Amino acid sequence: MAVLRTPLCERLGVGLPIVQAPIGSAAAPRLVAAVAEAGGLGMLALTWRGPERARRDIGLVRRLTGRPFAANLVLDFPVADSLPVCLDEGVPIISTFWGDPAQVGARIHEAGALHMHTAAQVVGAIAAQAAATFEHLTMEANR
């Protein structure tokens, strides 16, 4: 496997700065595992799969690869059932999109996972950065 080490690679635990898009049913366990095995970050799309299917798909990814991968949740849809499954299963990276990342960020960090949020607009990126900064400062103050 080719390796191109960058700070992003170090943070994610991957060999290449490549992140697979979590596009619906295409982002299924076999693709996620293949991307991870190739050195990138595979992302499992879980928003519309329900908690039982999410648990099963996470388990399948784990059986196919021992490398880091991410679970993606779209925050404009209900994720209250899927997020706990991801955290209980120890998914190392939780990716979110749309919606307010502040609603899940602290819970993700408290579980020991890395939270990555994709913003579609500058205003969303600024809000996500502000939420992450506030969360970090709050966590530091509570130590």
What does the model show?
The model is unreliable at 137-141 (pLDDT under 50). Strand 1 (42-45), helix 3 (50-64) and strand 2 (69-74) form a beta-alpha-beta unit. The chain starts with 6 loop residues before the first helix and ends with a helix. The protein has a 4-stranded parallel beta sheet with strand order 1-2-3-4. It has a single domain (24-138), classed as Aldolase class I (TIM Barrel). The protein is built from 6 helices and 4 strands; from the N terminus they run ααβαβαβαβα. It is an alpha/beta fold and 143 residues long. The longest helix has 20 residues, at 122-141. Keywords: Flavoprotein, FMN, Monooxygenase, Oxidoreductase. Pfam families: NMO (PF03060).
Q: What portion of the residues fall into strands of 2 or more residues? A: 5-15%
How many E strands?
Answer: 4
Overall CATH class: Alpha Beta
**Largest sheet at a glance?**
4 strands, parallel
CATH superfamily: Aldolase class I
Radius of gyration: 15 Å
Give the overall pLDDT as a whole number: 89
Shape: globular
Low-confidence stretches: 137-141
Architecture, according to CATH? Alpha-Beta Barrel
Organism: Nonomuraea insulae
Pfam family, one: NMO
GO molecular function, one term: monooxygenase activity
Keywords: Flavoprotein, FMN, Monooxygenase, Oxidoreductase
Summed up, what is this model?
The protein has 143 residues and is of the alpha/beta class.
Overview features:
alpha/beta; TIM Barrel; four-stranded parallel sheet
